[in-house]
Amino acid sequence: MYHCAVTSADAHVTIFNVLLSPEAEILTKNEKKIFKNLATNLRSVTSGIAHVTIFSVLPSPEAKILTKNNKKIFPNLATYYCAVTSADAYVTIFSVLPLPETEILTKNKNKIFENLATNLRAVTSANAHVIIFSVLPSPEAKILTKNNKKIFQNLATYHCAVTSANAHVTIFSVLPSPETEILTKNKKKFLKIWQQIYVR
Fold this sequence. Notes:
Blueprint: E1 2-7, E2 14-19, H1 23-29, H2 31-34, E3 44-45, E4 52-53, E5 55-57, H3 62-73, E6 82-84, E7 93-95, H4 101-107, H5 109-112, E8 130-134, H6 140-146, H7 148-151, E9 159-163, E10 169-173, H8 179-198
Parallel strand pairs: 2-5
Antiparallel strand pairs: 1-2, 3-4, 6-7, 8-10, 9-10
């Protein structure tokens, strides 16, 4: 499983996926396939208008390098739209830029999000234990509310790792106990707050 740790400094959304064995070994073996054309364990991935950066941090010294280069990697990111899908990458991230980027997204929807039905994106991974989705303006936000139970039907508890008014991204990761117990108690409260923020 992964540990999903999130910071929101310059980039607003930075995801660190710290792998434990044997997942780390699998990642190493599949390095060229998963992260083709990427040289180090610090993974910077861009896709068209996407502009997403994902960090998969294996044991040190990679983690130390990541910390040292954090400001350099994200010098000028404010709000951005990111979309990355990979069957082998374990993680898919979606966030939303303000207009006119959202207009570009709509026009290129089929190209960017092939085989994805709506602007509401839900991604699950048995290995990653992470769900990430973003919400565009209504009616997508309303669709999210209506389908909320369906989307999370197999998740007993979840944790909202990041919310950003600018990026409009929300990341859910499943935590081990006793965190899940705490989240269960706060689930209704969180959903109410979340809907006030995102559902217009």
